[in-house]
Amino acid sequence: MPKKSRLNRLPGDAYSPQIHARLWLIGTDQKSYLGVGKVRLMELISELGSISQAAKTLNMSYKRAWTLIEEVNQIGPKPYVIKEVGGSGGGHANLTEAGLHAIAQYRELEKEFTVFIAQRTQNISL
Amino acid sequence: MPKKSRLNRLPGDAYSPQIHARLWLIGTDQKSYLGVGKVRLMELISELGSISQAAKTLNMSYKRAWTLIEEVNQIGPKPYVIKEVGGSGGGHANLTEAGLHAIAQYRELEKEFTVFIAQRTQNISL
Questions:
Q1: What is the pTM of this model?
Q2: C-alpha–C-alpha distance, residues A119 and A100, integer Å
Q3: Size of interface A-B (CB pairs under 8 A)
Q4: Which of A31, B20, B71, B76 satisfies CB 3.0 to 4.6 Å to B12 for a cystine?
Q5: Rounded to a whole number, what is the distance in Å from the CA of B90 to chain A's nearest CA?
Q6: Which of A61-70, A105-114, B2-11 has the lowest mean pLDDT?
Q7: Which chain B residue is nearest to residue A74, measuring alpha carbons?
Q8: How high is the ipTM of this complex?
């Protein structure tokens, strides 16, 4: 996404009209992290079984998707995405159990956060 | 801050070792927003009574601080920062009641969020 387009949009994701936020789960190494971009990429890989199709859906280069998956596979003690290089489809891929568990935890945190925000929002007056 | 330095640090602020986040309050115009950067700048202006000293403390250019204050003053129906241009100190400044109320709301949301995160963190295993 070109940098310029960011200037005219609100930061983060809208958890309510009045509160936007972004959440990251931090790996045990305190260096790697799982945010909504990696989660969405992993969810699409799980749905489509293909890194190239997941990348295309996100308007992301294949190279960028690979880099993100390399990062994703450093987050936990076990890899989250299993890649198979080559073949006519340009690389088949799937999530491991650890990967599915990681994205489930991210989405669960988001769900609880949404409830927290819904309770908070009525009090904000800027 | 140069872009490069961002590559080696974790995103957001550490609300726990396992969960980082960033929060923004959205203005009623659904275009302006108040995040931790603007809050910190406003807090320093309140403490120091000076835009240039607040900017210096944040390693921010005076021009950048002015731009942020212009944005801050669009968030609510009333301005948050009152500026006086010129003078030997390079411009005196103070927060309005609305500005103090806005940063208090941001910090209160953060405080409640910290409690929410503390309750959540024990369950995360990546």
A1: 0.87
A2: 29
A3: 97
A4: B20
A5: 29
A6: B2-11
A7: B126
A8: 0.87
